[in-house]
Write a structure and sequence with these properties.
The protein is mostly beta strands and about 350 residues long. It has one domain: Tachylectin-2, Chain A, CATH 2.115.10.20. It is about 0% helix and about 45% strand. It contains 1 helix and 25 strands. The strands form 5 sheets. It has a 7-stranded antiparallel β-sheet, with no helix packed on it. Strands 4, 5, 22, 23, 24 and 25 form a 6-stranded antiparallel β-sheet that branches. The chain is globular, with a radius of gyration of 19 Å. The N and C termini lie far apart (about 40 Å). The N terminus is likely disordered.
Length: about 350
């Protein structure tokens, strides 16, 4: 469906009927991408293929590293069937692209075999007016399907044009590697007005989708109604906090137990868990005074929760004193977070 050739504007008419069906636990609904929304082929790739290497820390806990020459900015991870898929930012000192990795156990990752070059989604070098010509950073990846029933994935990501402005966009893939951009409602292809929107995380509950994203250090909430592509901002300061980093949100169906929403967010090098005070995602949030007690040391950011048969795992970026960044993982035992070690062979 998505070729490696750039899609020229004269081919727009062939793409007007594109639609996506979002998969939810309860129901499915169709979103038509309007006539001005055409697929944008990924930018030219650069760099060597990156491998997330599993390493053991001094305490035996598992960490994932791109190696000393790369710097992690963000990532997203999911478990589809028996396989884990992870999309990681690779910052080369001037710009960033997104690479894709797979794993049978969520601990030892290799580059996706379908990826022949280093970048899965690279900056858009073909359209000078687009919002992501300099850098791209992964936000949320969600399962979906095309209008004819074929499975695909959606990615909500942050793009930058090199001027310091950050905006949110959407891309789609059928193999997890080759992404095509979906043009948003704003003139330069992004989803929201304004110059500082970033780090989206999207969750679904019932027939609606909810996007939490960062705007100038505050967490905003936007909702997507059934049958719509656009999101509408309904709360511009969800937590009532400044300088909040990346977040991950789980709906009550994912969290279980109390029927409340749960949000993990980073602030000041620590990770916190906030709980919704009501069963409505648009309600108030209970922000704890103390951070989570994690089994490793460092400055923490970019939390990601993955539900497994053995219980929840918390993946997060840890920055050490020398500046090296790794992805570390802990497992939840009761209300505590414990170390998760590589299995012995």
């Amino acid at each position: 469906m998505f070729s490696n050739n750039h899609i020229h504007k004269r081919q727009i008419c062939a793409l007007l009927a594109l639609s996506l069906v979002y998969l939810t636990p309860i129901t499915s609904f169709t979103v038509s991408i309007h006539h001005r929304s055409l697929l944008k082929q990924k930018g030219k790739q650069n760099g060597a293929t990156l491998a997330l290497q599993a390493i053991a820390l001094d305490n035996g806990n598992t960490a994932l590293s791109l190696g000393p020459s790369a710097s992690l900015c963000g990532f997203d991870i999911h478990k589809f069937g028996s396989e884990y898929s992870l999309w990681a930012d690779d910052y080369n000192g001037t710009s960033s692209s997104i690479s894709c990795h797979t794993s049978p156990n969520g601990l030892s990752f290799i580059p996706n075999p379908s990826s022949l070059q280093g970048a899965s989604l690279a900056p858009n070098v073909d359209d000078w007016w687009y919002f992501d010509t300099h850098s791209v950073s992964v936000g949320s990846v969600l399962p979906a399907s095309t209008g004819d029933g074929k499975e695909c994935l959606l990615m909500y990501y942050t793009g930058s044009d090199g001027s310091g402005r950050r905006r949110i966009g959407t891309a789609v893939t059928q193999n997890g590697v080759d992404w095509g951009r979906i043009e948003g409602p704003e003139p330069n292809g992004n989803l929201f007005p304004g110059e500082e929107n970033s780090d989206p995380t999207v969750v679904r509950s019932g027939e609606r989708s909810y996007m939490f994203f960062n705007r100038d250090g505050k967490i905003c909430l936007a909702t997507q109604e059934p049958g719509k592509f656009e999101f509408t901002i309904v709360n511009s300061d969800v937590l009532g906090l400044d300088d909040v980093g990346r977040i991950t949100v789980k709906s009550p169906g994912d969290v279980g137990g109390d029927g409340l929403w749960s949000m993990y967010f980073s602030k000041g090098g620590e990770i916190f868990e906030a709980k919704g005070e009501t069963q409505s995602v648009t309600g108030e949030w209970n922000v704890p005074p103390e951070p989570l007690k994690l089994p490793t040391d460092g400055k923490f950011s970019c939390p990601r929760i993955v539900e497994t048969e053995e219980g929840d795992r918390l993946y997060y970026i840890s920055e050490k004193e020398g500046g090296e960044k790794t992805i570390e993982v802990a497992k939840k035992i009761g209300e505590e977070w414990a170390e998760l070690k590589l299995p012995t062979i």
